[in-house]
Design brief:
The protein contains four helices and nine strands, in the order αββαβββαββαββ. By secondary structure, the chain is an alpha+beta fold. The protein has three domains: 42 residues; 96 residues, Translation Initiation Factor IF3, CATH 3.30.110.170; 109 residues, Alpha-Beta Plaits (2-Layer Sandwich). Strands 2, 3, 4, 5, 6 and 7 form a six-stranded antiparallel β-sheet that branches. It has a three-stranded antiparallel β-sheet with strand order 1-9-8. β4 and β5 form a beta hairpin. The relative contact order is 0.19.
Length: 249
């Protein structure tokens, strides 16, 4: 009887030791896993990556206007119509096509006589008529040249004013994808070099956030927190910035 009790007690003790060992082992395993999770959560590196590329505009918008000022409204319209025909003929001679050309409606301004104090009176002095022409084209070089040479119309007796062209790049969506990928690669290289200097290496990318995406003149060094979209220059520089976080292994 006593032998049976001793055997039973021994089994209980052994079972208790096994349970204790299992608890300790599982605690160690869980602790290790917890430490790895904490390390994954806390040990990370944040870097900023950037990429630049020079591009050439592939679309241009150019505007000009001409006007006539006459005492008689009917005479002013007649002369402006003659000017319009002259402008159209000039543009055609420069290779500008009709689909590229948009002629605006005539804007009529009544000009009143001034009194001694320089204020308008109710007496009409004449009329000022203005009409604008706008050219939109993918042939950037052609229209750029026309915009600079259009002052030749002044020699033909036309009061023509040429405004600065606007230059655009029409493939921005594809370019953004390309530039963001390059900026992310740059961020990864920077993070890897920083981690290597401390005897570590980078792991998974934890997060990524797009920063500034801007288009500036090719020679510009301007940077804006809000981004820039330049339309004044034919040759441009594109810059993309991203902020990326990597885990440290």
């Amino acid at each position: 009887m006593e032998g049976g009790n001793f055997l039973k007690n021994s089994q209980i003790i052994i079972l208790g030791i096994c349970i204790a060992a299992a608890v300790i082992a599982s605690s160690v395993i869980l602790s290790g896993g917890f430490l790895k999770v904490m390390k994954f959560t806390r040990e990370q590196i944040n870097v900023t990556g950037s990429a630049t590329k020079e591009i050439r505009s592939d679309y241009i918008v150019w505007r000009g206007e001409f006007k006539r000022r006459e005492a008689n409204l009917k005479a002013a319209y007649k002369l402006l119509k003659e000017d319009l025909d002259e402008v159209k003929a000039y543009l055609v001679s420069k290779g500008v096509t009709e689909p590229e050309t948009d002629i605006s409606q005539v804007i009529t301004e009544t000009v009143y006589k001034k009194n001694k104090e320089g204020n308008d009176t109710n007496d009409i002095q004449g009329y000022c008529l203005t009409q604008a022409v706008e050219i939109r084209s993918n042939d950037v070089d052609k229209i750029d040249t026309v915009s600079r040479e259009s002052t030749e119309l002044i020699d033909r007796g036309i009061q023509f004013t040429s405004f600065a062209p606007e230059y655009f790049y029409t493939k921005l969506d594809d370019l953004k994808i390309e530039m963001l990928a390059k900026a992310t690669e740059n961020a990864k290289a920077r993070a890897a070099n920083m981690a290597k200097a401390t005897g570590n290496r980078i792991g998974f990318m934890r997060s990524a956030r797009m920063g500034v995406f801007q288009i500036t003149p090719a020679t510009s060094t301007d940077v804006s927190d809000y981004g820039v979209n330049d339309t004044t220059s034919l040759d441009k520089k594109v810059m993309a910035v991203v902020t990326v976080s990597f885990a440290i292994e």
